[in-house]
Every structure is written in C-alpha cells, then in structure tokens.
C-alpha cells in the first residue's frame, strides 16, 4: 500500500512539471513579437504557395499581397539588331597637319598655344632665316642689274639712231637687258616661296632692304593640338614640327571589336556614340575604316569611325560607348524588366496569371533589352497576363513554401 502511494506521488509530480514547462514555452513564444511576425509571414506565404498542392510552381495571393504585384499583358515591341562596343575619341589624322618651317633658322616669336583656334593663313611663328636673307639679297641685286640694263639699252638706242654704234652693240645690249629681266623674275619667284606676296617683294625692291624674318602661317583652319617650340629654338625641315593643327569639326572614334563580331561591321554603317562626359547626348557618325588584320594577342579588329562634332565639344582620349545597327528591327514579345527574374540555377522566369490572383512560374528565353523592356524569345505569348512588378516577391514566396 505504501508503494502505491509513492508511485502516485511521483507520477503527479511529473505531470505538474510537464505542465509548467509547456506554459513557459507558450509564454516565451508569445512574448517575442519578431518571432510571432516571422511565423505569421512564413505561414501566409506557405499557405499562398501551397493553396493547390498539385501545382508546385503556382502561388495564390491574398488581397493584401496583391498590392505588391502589378499585372500587364505581354506586348509586341521593336528590338533593333545592334552591336555595341567601347572605343576612344582621337583627332582626325586626315585633317591634322604638322606645321614645319620650310627653311632652317631660329624661332623669333610664337603666336599660338595649345587649345587656341586658328584660321587658315594665321601666323603661328616666325624665324630668322638666313636662306630668306640670301634670296632677298639676290632679289635686290637682280633688280639693280635690270635697272642698269634698262638705262643702258635706252641710251644705246638713242646712239643707234645717229649711227654712233653698230647694230651688233644694240643687239648685245638688248640681250643683256632680257637676261636681267629673267634673273629678276627668278629672284622674285625664289622670294615668293618663303611666303612673301608681290606687294612685299615690291617693298623690298623699292627700299633696297632685306628682311630675314620668315613668317610660318597655319595651312588650315582648326585648333592647335601640339606645340614643340620656344623662342630661340633652332628649327629645320624634317625635324620635330613646332606646331600641329587639327580640324576638330570631325573627330575619330577608334574601337577594337571582338573577332567574332567583326563580320557584322561594314564601311558606311551609321554609328551612335554616347560619352560619360555628356550624359543623354548622342553623337552621330559613320564607319570609315575596318582593320585588315586581327590582333594576335587580343583577337580584336580595329574599327574607325568619323564622328561629327560641329560644336567642338569632344576631346581626344575620351572613352565612348557606341552602337551600330547591323539590321532591320525585329518585332518580338516583351515584358518589363522587373517582370523577369533570374533564378539561382541561371534560368530566367516570368509569372503568368489568368485571373490576376493565381500566378504560375514559367521559364522564358530572353533576348535584347531596350527602353525598360526585355525581349522574350520563348516561353510566353502576346496578350498573356504577366507580373510586371513584384515578380521577385512571387519567387520568394514559392521558395519559402518549398523550404
């Protein structure tokens, strides 16, 4: 009898202890709001995703959850067939000129700095040229000889009328005068090669004064892009050019495109160029040259384009992104970018619905991206309703239910 009482007391104590432990566990879970909220959220998503246990890729949303999802039909949009690449801006070498001095000498003065815009014929620098001094001295001497011969011929003609000299003497004087005229013409042409005008030459002859200052003008209108000169520097033909002038109304864009993409490019194709320095701006151009060889190290091909820059805003060395249209636009089904989800296994999916409440995940094959839409090559049809916003929310709901 005593043993039965002891056994009953032990069993009663165990029951009380179990009741106390269960009550403490219930109070602990109820006293943590984050625990309760997480439990409710997981339960809600789990219920939504498993409303129909026969369809493991579907989610049913409540009225509250529907506020996070926007639905729109799949529409048709045009997607251009384009190639993109990265390049850099450079000066148009076909419109750039290195300005050399035609004769040797020392620089006297400079009249331009890098970045200055110059006109055709505007003086860039002057040099003290011994060759010019020699040519002008020859010019002055030739002019003096011709003047002497003219006076001598006139005097002999008067004497010939009175038979004071023979005809031979008159013919010799005429020949000497014609030789002097030829020498003067040659001397004038020699000085003209230094850039002197006829008016300058006439002043030299009239003043009997040689000026060794050689003026070197800009051969084209453009911008000074390089200067390698200083006063007193001795320069000569074939050495480093004191100045480089470039016409920057048209610039080059140089790009190295992948070997696999090179067959798509053709001379004359239109190019649209965008630069980080000018957001929202598009510069137009055309392909002018495609390289004849492939770089053995990078496996890339040079593509050069002429870019119109009438406002002269581009700078050599700027990085540029360019797009070349290589075919007619293609009309394809399209979904907003937020309606396409890239899954962990690398596939892309969209969420299709018929009643705007029940959504089914469908694998799609995507193409190009344009104006906030993604081209759909396979997986959905035009007119089907898909989630355009909140697709990621639906994927998370399904994943939560699976876990």
Report what the structure shows.
The chain has about 400 residues and is of the alpha+beta class. It contains 7 helices and 21 strands. It has helices at about 1-30, 35-50, 65, 130-160, 165-190, 200-205, 390-400, and strands spanning about 60, 70-75, 75-90, 95-100, 105-110, 115-120, 125-130, 215, 220-225, 235, 245, 250-260, 270-275, 285-290, 300-310, 320-335, 340, 350-355, 360-370, 375-380, 385-390. The strands form 3 sheets. A 6-stranded antiparallel barrel has the order 3-12-15-14-13-16. Helix 2 (about 35-50) packs across helix 7 (about 390-400). About 25% of the residues are buried.
List keywords for this structure.
single chain, alpha+beta, Elongation Factor Tu (Ef-tu), domain 3, OB fold (Dihydrolipoamide Acetyltransferase, E2P), 6-stranded antiparallel beta barrel, 32% helix, rod-shaped
Helix and strand arrangement:
Elements: H1 2-30, H2 33-49, E1 58-60, H3 63-66, E2 70-73, E3 75-91, E4 96-99, E5 105-110, E6 117-118, E7 123-128, H4 130-161, H5 167-192, H6 198-207, E8 213-217, E9 222-227, E10 234-235, E11 243-246, E12 250-258, E13 270-275, E14 283-290, E15 300-308, E16 319-336, E17 341-342, E18 348-353, E19 358-370, E20 373-378, E21 385-389, H7 391-402
Antiparallel strand pairs: 1-19, 2-21, 3-12, 3-16, 4-11, 5-7, 5-10, 6-9, 7-8, 9-11, 12-15, 13-14, 13-16, 14-15, 16-20, 17-18, 18-19, 18-21, 19-20
